[in-house]
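Figure 6 in text form: structure in, sequence out.
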């Protein structure tokens, strides 16, 4: 089988060599220059560079022109799911098409599908429609890109009218056709992660955010800790997945806890970012990216034999951003009392001479401070992250050159 991999996610996260038989299959990796070094080194494969400056699908198609048609197109990054569908359509390769991917990428299509299944979502409208006819809710509201990621481009307002006025008056500049307006539903935010095979759950794990993804985009720390995952949470999750057509592979679902039950926020047909995958594997024994590759290749994937972790064996992760510093270097203070705490399982900290990324990222190696905590009860981990976030400060550093 000829397998085309649209490579973006580092091999240390994916484990290509463990999950694709490179001697049996013909494997072609297409990658941007900055990602070439993160390809698996010791496997038999064709490696093709694409510029990374233009349309992803067009660059991939140009890179593989003249090669035999692939039998499988693999894309693991959320940024590549829609381009991969376009590549499949152009090359007539089996797998999800654009129409299949939209319910997990376009936030209006996504919420419409979930609402049609009888599940609660925030009230919402395409921005162009709202500008023409207003909306039917009041209170805090959000402008969101339809296919955004990492909460980039999101802005909040006290009322929907204030949001629409900001667009009309030009104080916020957005592509009206690529945005939605959404009701802000109050409550703690959960992320529910796992994998399904033929609609059957291989493993499901719920976690509660400490902080928010929007806050992280604006420069605040973010983390999460695992919580109980009762049958009702699993049932809600599977109902959401059925609504958007996720039947095989990993998922990362976000929902808002309210007194009336969970409110769907969004879902992706992908592995969660930051250290979600690591904490999930610690708790369940399932490496989500491996499960995804094996499912794509038609290989069997079994649920772990070990039972889920007990209530005192929860895990969590944290990330402290650097993209709002205005500097490629940072100075960290207030972290020393925490780094040797018994709950710390992994601690990753930038030294003053090590640069951080100036774009939004959750990658441990690109931000000032990150880590994994556990095993411990949820309350212990929540307290640790809350205290850490209240104590640590990150300031712009000096260029060591």
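Output sequence:
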């Amino acid at each position: 089988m000829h397998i085309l991999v649209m490579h973006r996610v580092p091999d240390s996260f994916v484990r290509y060599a463990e999950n694709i038989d490179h001697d049996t299959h013909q494997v072609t990796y297409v990658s941007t220059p900055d990602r070439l070094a993160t390809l698996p080194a010791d496997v038999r494969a064709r490696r093709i560079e694409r510029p990374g400056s233009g349309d992803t699908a067009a660059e991939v198609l140009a890179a593989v022109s003249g090669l035999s048609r692939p039998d499988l197109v693999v894309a693991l990054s959320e940024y590549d799911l829609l381009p991969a569908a376009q590549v499949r359509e152009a090359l007539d390769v089996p797998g999800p098409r654009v129409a299949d991917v939209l319910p997990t990428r376009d936030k209006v299509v996504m919420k419409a599908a979930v609402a049609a299944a009888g599940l609660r979502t925030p009230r919402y409208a395409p921005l162009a429609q709202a500008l023409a006819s207003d909306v039917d809710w009041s209170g805090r509201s959000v402008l969101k890109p339809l296919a955004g990621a990492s909460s980039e481009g999101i802005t909040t307002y006290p009322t929907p009218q204030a949001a629409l006025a900001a667009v009309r008056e030009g104080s916020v500049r957005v592509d009206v056709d690529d945005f939605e307006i959404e009701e802000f539903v109050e409550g703690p935010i959960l992320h529910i992660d796992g994998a399904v095979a033929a609609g059957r759950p291989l493993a499901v794990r719920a976690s509660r955010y400490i902080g928010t993804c929007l806050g992280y985009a604006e420069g605040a720390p973010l983390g999460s800790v695992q919580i109980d995952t009762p049958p009702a949470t699993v049932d809600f999750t599977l109902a959401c997945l059925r609504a958007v057509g996720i039947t095989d592979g990993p998922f990362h679902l976000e929902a808002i806890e309210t007194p009336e039950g969970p409110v769907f926020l969004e879902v992706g047909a992908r592995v969660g970012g930051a250290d979600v995958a690591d904490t999930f594997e610690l708790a369940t024994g399932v490496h989500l990216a491996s499960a995804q590759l094996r499912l794509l290749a038609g290989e069997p994937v079994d649920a772990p034999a070990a039972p889920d972790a007990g209530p005192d064996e929860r895990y969590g992760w944290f990330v402290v951003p650097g993209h709002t510093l205005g500097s490629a270097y940072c100075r960290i203070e207030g972290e020393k009392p925490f780094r040797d705490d018994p709950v710390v399982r992994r601690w990753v900290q930038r030294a003053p001479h090590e640069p951080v990324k100036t774009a939004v990222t959750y990658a441990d190696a690109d931000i000032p401070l990150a880590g994994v905590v556990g095993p411990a009860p949820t309350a212990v981990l929540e307290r640790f992250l809350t205290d850490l976030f209240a104590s640590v400060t990150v300031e712009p550093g000096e260029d060591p050159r």
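Caption detail: The chain is about 30% helix and 25% strand.
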